[in-house]
Design a protein that fits this description.
Length: 411
């Protein structure tokens, strides 16, 4: 439980600022008259996250033995997150000069992406194989909770108290993670790569493990493209149905995050009890059903209750499926290159998410929203089927501790 508390604190505080930049700030700028084209350009800051794979080996190779290898990185990065948020104070969006604001946001995203490498590495090394399901459920619950706090609570504070109050709250909430970092005592590393070249070779050697390429480039790709293409249709369909931007932001950024938090915790517990394959099938079936439930919205009708239920079911199912994906990614993450391995495998999914949005919207222009949703259901079904077969053949053997050799590597 203590391990899960550490992970919940770190992932939540990391995503508070991310939620604000990706949801809260977008709503603030749009309400102030910022064009959609400018907002679209601002979202490109998120491309830093898939690129973090380029410097992940540095975090695996270098670190202080005295302060804790990854903890020494977190001491710098968590402090940097707080200071970067405080640097937003002079740049109230109502002033109209967005240049400095965007630069500070870009710096924050860079720091948060780098911090994610260190936290993921700590999670891989902390969690025994039997605890990975619950640990990844806590991770995704923390991501959703951070998004609610940054994209929801801080937006409400901005509406009532202004820019300074919102930014100070962001910084204060993020600073809570420093308490966790200070109190955390990391076990000394004895498996650090002997050189930087060795650390960087892990970028490709992770895929040499049995079944890893099939999992990453078939199962994960199909599931992320299918779900990403369907989700990309939601916002334009809601706009077409006459929903206001504020209503869309609250529902898609805050309301549906609540069931996602619950789903992360529940799915994590079930992964530990019934296994990865069964949770993948259950989550995939619910995700396909939720996508079908969006068809009234995608056909031009958006009744409030039905739409919110379908969106909530979609995000809950998507979170549950992600718990399985992250858990299997962790199975393939070797302790000596934990940050690099988990980052590489996760970055493939991130890249698929970016690409799938473009695919979904482009296909919708040609064939319409409902056709894309039906195609997404087919892709999801194929991904789940291949995932079930993968787990039947490459499921990890039980190990007593997370720092034992990766089970997938010896399968």
């Amino acid at each position: 439980m203590r391990r899960n508390g550490i992970l919940l604190s770190l992932y939540t505080t990391q995503y508070i600022g991310v939620g604000f930049v990706s949801i809260g700030l977008i709503a603030i700028l749009r309400d102030g008259g910022t064009s959609l084209a400018t907002l679209g350009a601002l979202t490109l800051i998120g491309l830093v996250w898939p690129l973090k794979v380029l410097w992940a080996p540095l975090l695996d190779r270098f670190g202080s033995q005295a302060r804790g290898h990854y903890r020494s990185w977190l001491l710098i990065l968590q402090s940097g997150l707080v200071l970067t948020l405080l640097a937003l104070l002079p740049f109230d969006p109502s002033g109209g000069n967005l240049g400095p604001l965007v630069l500070v946001c870009a710096a924050y995203v860079l720091l948060s992406a780098t911090q994610d490498i260190a936290v993921d590495a700590i999670a891989v090394r902390l969690l025994a194989e039997s605890d990975r399901g619950s640990g990844n459920g806590v991770q995704l619950a923390g991501v959703s909770l951070g998004t609610v706090l940054g994209g929801g609570l801080c937006l409400v504070v901005y509406d009532r108290g202004g820019w300074t109050a919102a930014v100070l709250l962001l910084a204060a909430l993020t600073a809570l993670g420093l308490i966790t970092v200070w109190r955390f005592r990391e076990e000394p590393r004895t498996d650090r790569a002997p050189g930087l070249g060795t650390a960087y070779r892990a970028l490709l050697s992770v895929f040499a493990q049995p079944g890893c390429r099939r999992w990453t480039f078939a199962v994960v790709t199909l599931i992320y493209v299918g779900s990403g293409a369907a989700w990309a249709l939601v916002t334009p369909a809601l706009v077409d149905a006459g929903w206001s931007e504020s209503r869309i932001g609250i529902v898609t950024g805050v309301v549906v995050s609540i069931p996602a938090i619950v789903a992360g915790l529940v799915a994590g517990g079930f992964v530990s009890r019934v296994g990865r394959a069964r949770v993948l099938v259950a989550g995939g079936a619910l995700l396909a059903a939720a996508t079908a439930g969006l068809l009234p919205l995608l056909s031009g009708q958006a009744p409030a209750t039905g739409t919110i239920v379908a969106l909530s079911a979609f995000m809950a199912a998507y979170t549950g499926v992600n718990v399985v994906i992250y858990t299997v990614n962790m199975d393939y993450s070797r302790p000596h290159s934990a940050g690099t391995d988990f980052t590489v495998l996760s970055s493939v999914g991130l890249a698929c998410s970016f690409v799938s949005s473009s695919i979904g919207l482009t296909a919708a222009a040609w064939f319409g929203y409902p056709a894309v949703a039906l195609g997404s259901i087919v892709l999801l079904g194929l991904g789940v089927l291949l995932g079930l077969r993968h787990q039947g053949r490459f499921a990890p053997a039980r190990t007593p501790a997370a720092v034992q050799p990766n089970p997938a590597a010896s399968a």
